[in-house]
Design a protein that fits this description.
Largest sheet: 6 strands, mixed
Radius of gyration: 28 Å
Number of helices: 15
Strand content: 5-15%
Order of helices and strands: HEEHEHEHEEHEHEHEHEEHHHHEEHEHH
Helix content: 40-55%
Structural class: alpha/beta
Amino acid sequence: MYTNLTIFCAILVCCSASRVLELSDKFSEIYKEGGFWLVKFYAPWCGHCKRLEPVWAQVAQALYKTNIRVGRVDCTRFPTLATEFSVNGFPTIKFIKPGEDFTFHGDRTKDDIVNFAIRMAGPPVQDVTRSESLTNLKQMNQLFFMYVGEQEGLLWEAYYDVASKLQPHGFFYSASKEIAKQHVDIDELPAVFVYKESLHYFYPIESGPVVDLNESEEAQHLNSSMYKWINEERFETFPKITRENKLQQISQEMLEFRDMVEGLIRKKRDKYHKYFQFGWVGNPELANSIAMQVLPLPHLLVLNSTTNHHHIPEDDPSQLTSDAIDIFLERIYNQSVPAYGGNSLAVRLYRTYFEARTSLADMWRGNPVLTTVLFGLPLGFLSLILYSICCSDILDADEDEEEELLHEKKE
């Protein structure tokens, strides 16, 4: 105990206003010794990082009595840590344990971050041993997956394997048939279902095992089918998608447009659920980044996450009806609408330029003085160097001309 205390005192400083630990470059050795860490990688000039600061203090307070330590790294002071953990943007939140680290991609709220940390600190599949625990899970209005039955066989192995891969993105539980049947009607065991929006959706067993395959091929097919189904169901029907922990003010027109789209996708869930994942944003920055332009609001955008192509309706989105959106989605599925973006070299170069320009604008809004210093000083030195190089030739030429004139006069 004394040795550990000495090490921590040497490399960690606890912020006076919170329970967040300030980490130095020695952290790269400490985390390998064991334990769970939730770390925020940030830059002082980043406006998003500043807005996350009070939330991060609340996260540290909420996790104070757990076995998860909460810290932060100033990447401008310790860039080697940012490189070691492949940090490409700010802020980046990672759950770190010996030999592994997982990046948080959810909404930057206290509850979402805390749930992520607690989920990653536990096993991939958590056992529910009391009916009251399952009741509490449902009352939390939390989306989760549940395996019911004996923890053996191909279905259990496929479920556990997928849970291990998708643990950073969802909650996975297991319960006995006696506990589960108090909450949901189950015809056959074992079974897997997802609970979301107060409804149960079961994994279709008929799409899993195939009798013509041997055991190894059947296991591989079941794993693929289970992964595909869980990946489709791990989102709500119409989730909020944000980069920020706050939404800007949403106008009544935008709310009406959002409600119209939500009504359509709930009405036609069976038609589109396998092919589209729907969501909405209250801040246009994410959509602008995808489209690489400033979009008017409200707007409708469809992204192919595999190819990075996106689709935008030809009509004014504010004038779209449910029927027009339905036709637009059908045309996307039939590949009969124009696709923009992609992964070509020209698009990647322009996307890099757009992201850099956007980041620079964010830096300026966050701290204009620091931005001016960071970019103004190097540009000033570069200008002086170029000026001295160019002017040195002119000055040398002037000196040569003066020498020639003096020589002529002497003659």
